[in-house]
Each structure stands twice: as structure tokens, then as C-alpha cells.
Amino acid sequence: MAVGLLVTCLNDVLYPETGKAVVTLLRRLGVEVTFPAGQTCCGQPMVNTGYLDEAVPLVRRHVEAFAGCEAIVVPSGSCAGSVRHQHRIVARRSGDPGLVRAVEESPPVYELSEYLVDVLGVVDVGAYFPHRVTYHPTCHSLRMLGVGDRPLALLRAVRGLTLCELPAAQECCGFGGTFAVKNPDTSVAMGADKARHVRESGAEVLVAGDNSCLTHIGGLLSRQRAGVRVMHIAEVLAATETPAALADPAAEVAR
Amino acid sequence: MSRTFLGTPAFPEAARSALANTQLRRNLAHATSTIRAKRAAVVGEVAEWERLRRAGAALKDRTLRHLDTYLQQLEESLTRAGATVHWARDAAEANRIVVDVARRHGTDEVVKVKSMVTAEIGLNDALAAAGITAWETDLAELIVQLGDDLPSHILVPAIHRNRSEVREIFLREMGRYGRPAPADLSDVPAELAAAARAHLREKFLRSRVAVSGANFAVAETGTLAVVESEGNGRMCLTLPEVLISVVGIEKLVPTWADLEVFLQLLPRSSTGERMNPYTSLWTGVTPGDGPQEVHVVLLDNGRTQVLADEVGRQALRCIRCSACLNVCPVYERTGGHSYGSVYPGPIGAILTPMLRGVGADAQVDSLPYASSLCGACFEVCPVRIDIPEVLVHLRAEVVDSHRGHPSAQNAAMAAAAWTLGDARRTSVAERVACAVGKLLRRTRRRAPGGRATLGALPGPAARWADARDVPIPAPESFRAWWARTDGGRTEQQ
């Protein structure tokens, strides 16, 4: 048996490098990784917008795709929270006892930092990343999953990395899924404050465990020409001293 | 003085104008961060805070499960103690009861203790329609009333005002309704409080009828409790001859001993104090001491409807501490008026739609969406109301109430569910997206670090792209990469 990578729909099409980084990292740590091809999306966008019926086929797809895996690893606190807490709500709504049972019997799901620290028991993953980094604890990883300081412990063990403190770190960035477009003014007002705090931190790289939040904060920073790039924590943890990892930060990531 | 929340636009629109009010933004950021820090400090002192929260939630849940029994017990205890108990199904009934009692005493004015429930039922307007003036005696309520304003916070209704604005309101308005503010009034808080004290004192001494709410009602003894900071409540509860208390039926606790839990949870969560300055407890009529005629109006006004909602009923645990408002990043920026209800912030976003009914209008239906679901409210709630859970539950009710009506959102969600409901369809959609991404990448700029982005876009895309650069799909999806390279094993370096 192997761990199944739930890459997430967002990473699949927008940020495949994050998925590749998880594969690189886990293999380096001796973990066998599979990518169940039947996976699509965990259904969170539908559930959080109120479309529970629409989420039913997605939850069904998820449990079918990952049946037989030893565990599910996902580079997203938000999607981990969705699978862990929302799938049973959707299954109950479907009225299908088979789906309810399948969700209950589905393999345990771990956000990446939980899997590394709690299951593998590692903090130093052998990474090298010689940059000034600040870390934004995304709301769902922090408050829904309770990952605590696991991501910070992982980052502190990275060779060459300077960790900068992020002011008001635990405050929401304002992404919030469809909130970002249903309440764009409030979302951007929240994001503007987050972006200001990121700039105040003095970091050149903003790291988080959710590319969804990073799309929002990164979109603001990029629009401001702030000179701060955003990266998923998996990409930092996968980086080593080999030349590929030291690629020019202004250039397109090698594919 | 009859402004109401009626006509408030849906949340996104109301928030847009609030966000542009720089004074409001500054006042709220300052006030909420101050209260947040105070709360965090005094909550941190309590070693068993989590157990206390769980006790508070369990007590309220048990009371709500047996609400019928406890309500009858409360009625008996109150009647035994010499109070008159009235039952009100809705706002109109409650208002009529209060107006009738006041009229019977031939008064044209009442003094009021700050009370959320009387704001909920619009009592002041009902009294005004009967020719009776209601004087708000809480400092912040006074500021709101004199300024012909609306409350924007559960605990601090004038939180959106700073002290120079308060000074202007006092100077301009106090003289119209009683003792004027001193002409040389400054914006020093102590001076402002002294002006309010002098203005209110004559109303306390003159009024024969007082109206209050209650923070708690003890079924076992028939005791009502009001928790406050300024002493105005104590004045209203002891000086007048007649006291009318309007109490939501969820305010019950079974026994006197249960107050022990809530009187620890409430002040630490609301004002960030270990103990509030004034806790008034009264049990019916005490001959020769305090009001000699005591009325208690037990109000439903949608609460049994909330109780019938298995997920939503936890909102009835609320003790109106406002910790969720103070910690909410949405509330901090949009202020309370944007919620169009006397109950603003996260608790208002769930309570208002449940009390008024999902589908009531577009404004009510916009409230469950007025949250990024960050979960900070649940973390601080002293009675563990899982507000994000209820928000998502109510969003589903909003969607279900509009099923069958064609809308862009319904169509988009149906299309997304169809595509993502099958891996093959998903893969085709991704190939199209990646092909577009490949083309766009040739011409567009790169964000620092290489992520390709688009700038501002027109039309509906502007809702994102107005202020944020837009990510461009990768040239090859992860799924396609995995299939092409056998999970990276055959990839050429």
C-alpha cells in the first residue's frame, strides 16, 4: 500500500509544481506515493457556497478514487478540512447509506505538515532554501485542523532559510473561496492589510500551506509590484542544494 | 429619532460604502484590537477556560432541550415572587404589552437599561407611536440615540464613533432633550462621561417606569440578572416604581448555581474584565424596596423556529458577549451597520437569517455569505457556537430556497459539478485550460518567482481582477504530467 496524493483541483491545473514538490519530498523521505487518477475536486467550493447536492458526485468520486490507499496526503489545509469535516455532511445529505459508510471507511486524510511531523515523525526534511521567508498560517490549517506550529518547525529546520515574523499572522487574508468574488471589496480590504504585513515582515518569499490563499495574497502583491513572491511550503521543503533548486527566482520555474 | 435598519442594501453593497469610510475603519480597528487584546489577556489567566466553555455550552443545550419545562418553572417562580408574567409570540405582542403597562401608569417617558431584545423588537418606536419617550441610559446607547444613529455593536453600540464625534453629538443634542452639555466640554473621556451622568441623572430621578432586558433568568428562583459596567442599569432597576423586563425565552438557566459558569464566561469574553462592575439580580417584588410593580415579558419572536433547526439551534446558546464581533476581520472592516440588523457581526450573520427566516429578502440571504469562514469567531465563543458550521448550513438553505430559478451562479455550480463529477471530463477541461494557459504565457508578465499572471480584466472577472492579478493555467496539468512521466519516474532531466 502507498499514500495517495490528493493534489487538489487548484494545484492540478494552476500549480502542478506544488504537486511535483510533494512527490519529490515524500520520495526523498522514503514514502511510496500514488496519484489515484479518479480524483477531481473535494467539493469544498460547492459546500461552502451552499450547493450540497452538487457536491455529492464529487464526494462519491473522492471516496472511490482513494479507496485502498493507506492514507491520503494533501498539500492544502482547506481541502484536508473539507474531506475530514464536510464529506460526512454531504454524504448524509445524499440519503445514500452506502456513501455514508464509504466516507466513514475512507482512509485518514493528512495535510502535508501533519503527515510529515505526526506520521513520519520528521521535522528536518533535508531541505535547503537560502532566502528570507515569512509564513502565513492559513485559517483552515490553523483553526479547522489545528496544525499549530508544525509548518514553522519544518521551516526552521530548512538550511539557509531565514524566518521573518509576520505581523498579525493569524488574521484571515480575506480569500475565503467564493467570498473573494461574492464580497470582493471586503476580501480585498482584508487582503490589503495582509499584503502590508507581508511587506513589513521584510521577507522576499511568502510561504503558506494553501495555494488558494496564496493566489489571493500573491495576486495583490504582484499587482502592487511588491517584490515578494509566494510559494507553497511543499516547494520550499522539496528544495535542496542541487542546481535546479537554485534557479533564478525571476525566471519561470523549470518544467 | 426613528431610524431603522429597513432598506439596508445586501451585505456586499452596504460593505462597499462602509469600507470607504476612513474614520469608521480607523475607529473600529482601534476599538476591536484593544478589546481583543484585553480579552485574550484575561481569558489566558483561566487555566480551565476550555472546560468552562464546554460547561456553558452544555448548560445551555440542556436548558434548550427542556425549554418548555423550565419556562413553566420560571413563570411559577416569578409569579410566586410577586411579578406579573406576560407571554409574547412576536415583536408586536411584546410592544403592545409594554405600551399598555406604561399607559396604565399615565407616564409619557420611560428609562431604559441597554437591551438587545428591545432593540430587536423596535420597542422605542412603538413607545414613541404611543406618545411615550424612551430614554436610553447606557452611555453608548445614549450616543446612538442623541446622534439619531443606529447601533453597530452588541456591547458597544457606538463603537463606530470616536470621542471627538461624541463630543460634537453631546454639545449639539443634549440640550434638546434635557440638561445640556457644558459649553466648554472637551473630548476627554472623563468629561464626556460626566456630561452624560448629569444629563441622565434627572431622568433617573424623574421616571416612574423603567424597561430592561435580562442577561439571565433563573427558572428555579425567578431571579433576573443584568450585567453592566456603568451603574445606569442599577439606577433603572431600583429607582422607578414600575419595572418591565423583556426577556427572550433562550435567556433561561435552570438554577442559581448555573450563574457561576456564565458570570465567569461573560465579562471576560465581552469587556475583557475579570468581573463586570455591576451585577444586578432581582426576584419579583421586594416590599418597600425597589420597584413595587414588576412585569416580565417572555418573548419568542422566532426563537422556537431557531430551536427547530438541528444545526442552527446552537445560536440560542448566545449570551451576547460580542467576542465574535471583536475578533471578526470582516466586522472590523465593514462595521455593524453593513449587516442591516441589531445583531451584527458573525452571530448576527447566523441569528438574523434564522429569526427572520431564510428567503425573507436579498439582504437577509446575503448575510450567511458575509464571512470568509476563517473560524476566529468559533475559537473565541464562550459557549462554543460553531458559527462557520451554521453559516455553511444557512448558505445551503439560501441555495435550496432558490433552486429551480435560473441564475448565473446556479448554472456555474451545476456546470462545475458536472465537469468535476468525472475524472475524464475533468481531464478534458484541464487540457483546454492548459492550452489557453500556454498561449497566454507567451504574452503575459510573470509575477516574481515565475507564476504567470494576467492583470485587470473586464466584465464579471473584474470581481477578482480589479485588485488582484489572475493566475494563468499551467502549460501541463499535474494529472497530465503524472501520466506522461509515470509519476516523474521517466522524466528527462
UniProtKB/TrEMBL annotation, chain A:
- Can you name this protein? L-lactate dehydrogenase complex protein LldE
Domain of life of the organism encoding this protein: Bacteria
Signal peptide range equals: none
Organism of provenance: Pseudonocardia thermophila
Q: Where is the Cysteine-rich domain?
A: 4-83, 133-217
What GO cellular component entries does it have?
cytosol
Coiled-coil intervals: none
Q: Which GO terms describe its molecular function?
A: oxidoreductase activity
From TrEMBL, chain B:
Q: Identify the Pfam families for this entry.
A: Fer4_8 (PF13183), LUD_dom (PF02589)
Instruction: Tell me which residues make up the 4Fe-4S ferredoxin-type domain.
Output: 315-385
Alphabetical list of Gene3D superfamilies matching this protein: Alpha-helical ferredoxin, NagB/RpiA/CoA transferase-like
User: Residue ranges of the LUD domain?
Assistant: 71-299
Which Gene Ontology terms describe the biological processes this protein takes part in?
Answer: lactate metabolic process
Q: Which GO terms describe its molecular function?
A: 4 iron, 4 sulfur cluster binding; metal ion binding
Keywords of the record:
4Fe-4S, Electron transport, Iron, Iron-sulfur, Metal-binding, Repeat, Transport
Using the record, list the residue span of the signal peptide; answer none if the entry has no such feature. Answer: none
Is Electron transport a UniProt keyword of this protein? Answer: yes
Q: Which PANTHER family match?
A: LACTATE UTILIZATION PROTEIN B
- Protein name according to UniProt: L-lactate dehydrogenase complex protein LldF
Species for this entry: Pseudonocardia thermophila
Q: What is the lineage of its organism?
A: Bacteria, Bacillati, Actinomycetota, Actinomycetes, Pseudonocardiales
